[in-house]
Amino acid sequence: MKSLRITYAHAVLATVVLTWVLIVVGAATRVYDAGMSCPDWPHCYSLWWPWPESRVIAAGHPEGYMVNGQHYAGWQVALEWGHRLLAALVGFALLGLLVAAKWQPRRVWAPLALAVVLLVVQIKLGAVTVWMSNLHWSVVIHLGNAMLFMGALFWLWWRAQVAPPMHRRPTPKIMMILSVLMPVCVWLTMLMGAAVSSTHSGGVCGGLFSCAGVWMPSPKVDVGQHIHMQHRLFALLTFVLSVVLMVVAKRTAPHARAAALQVHGLVLGQVVLGILTLYSFGSFPEWYYLLSILHLGWGTVLWLGALNVGLEMRSYAAEAPQAPQPAKPTQPTKRSR
To answer: Staple 267 to which of 61, 125, 242, 296, CB 3.0 to 4.6 Å?
Structure first.
């Protein structure tokens, strides 16, 4: 049974990695403006295999890869269709995990059920995103739910490999609060980043630190600038929170110190990528798309790292107390005659 559990945990981890690839490909689809290259769903130009373009024309689309007056390249169609294919693979992988859960401990059922529900919602949101022509709010909700789905898979991976401890080390209340605030802040920052990308607001503010000389532009003046600076504000809060988490963990929760340090390192890396992406928009536009994709990919890893802090504290088992040793049998005394 132990080897079976290890195999199940590995399968869950592989599904997490596949989901990460799916999210990164989705980011590339959005950044390269390929989200509407397949105008219908679940087909693509009424076909399951929309290549070559002459086949699309023969299927009743005389303008080929033309959608709303914009002609898409074949590689853009492949990017969108590949994103959908990866989503299908993730769905089948989760179905396999659901079937195999029959032979797993009951502790995996809750995160697995949550992942199934979130995947169903994600499929519906994917269709809505296409039907709404990638409207910015639909893109934001689609990414937000994808992060929650990946978080549920990560929780499932923890449950599949770590048995609940018999003895827990008490965790200070402040650490419990920080372990909740950290992933929430990261998640909200990523939502604002999706809003920046979907509204094409990546370069509207120029460099650091203000936005065209204003700290927080009013949405009534420029919505794009307001969204951009909101993203920066949440990024700053995430950085400050990671520092506080690292300091508090060092002083009060040694068992969460390594996880908190990892999160802080990931936040620093994300800040560097964000600054590079910001300045590449005007100075190195040929790198902007690639850096934007890396920015989201790294942010997804940061999201898992933030979740890892809370899971690390809740799964940590203090060393079990030594069981009392059985008393040695006493030697029978000789009966006196």
So the answer is: 242
